[in-house]
């Protein structure tokens, strides 16, 4: 079964998500940006969601995590929770 590890940042607006993505692409540390901005409890761990299988996350999240290249920040990804920046940290297909 496919498994992946990922980290994310959850914010309320697409504009904020794009702003944070630009900061990370400009050299800001993903984990620190998550701690400072993410509304998800995972922000305390720098956005780290640990390891999970296909189907354990909402479908929009799942689709990105199991198709995006490892180590490349993706997003904004809209879910019912808000807007996410996602980074797949590892994946075993």
From TrEMBL:
GO terms for molecular function: peptidyl-prolyl cis-trans isomerase activity. SUPFAM superfamilies: FKBP-like (SSF54534). Keywords: Cytoplasm, Isomerase, Rotamase. It is found in: Cytoplasm. This is Peptidyl-prolyl cis-trans isomerase C. Coiled coil: none annotated. It comes from Atopomonas hussainii. Belongs to the PpiC/parvulin rotamase family. InterPro entries: PPIase_dom_sf, PPIase_PpiC, PPIase_PpiC_CS, PpiC/parvulin_rotamase.
């Amino acid at each position: 079964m496919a498994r992946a590890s990922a980290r994310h940042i959850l914010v309320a607006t697409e504009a904020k998500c794009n702003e944070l993505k630009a900061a990370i692409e400009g050299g800001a540390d993903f984990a620190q940006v998550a701690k400072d901005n993410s509304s998800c409890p995972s922000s305390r761990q720098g956005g780290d969601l640990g390891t999970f299988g296909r189907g354990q996350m909402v479908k929009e999240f799942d689709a990105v995590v199991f198709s995006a290249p490892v180590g490349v920040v993706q997003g904004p990804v809209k879910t019912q929770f808000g807007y996410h920046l996602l980074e797949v940290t590892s994946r075993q297909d």
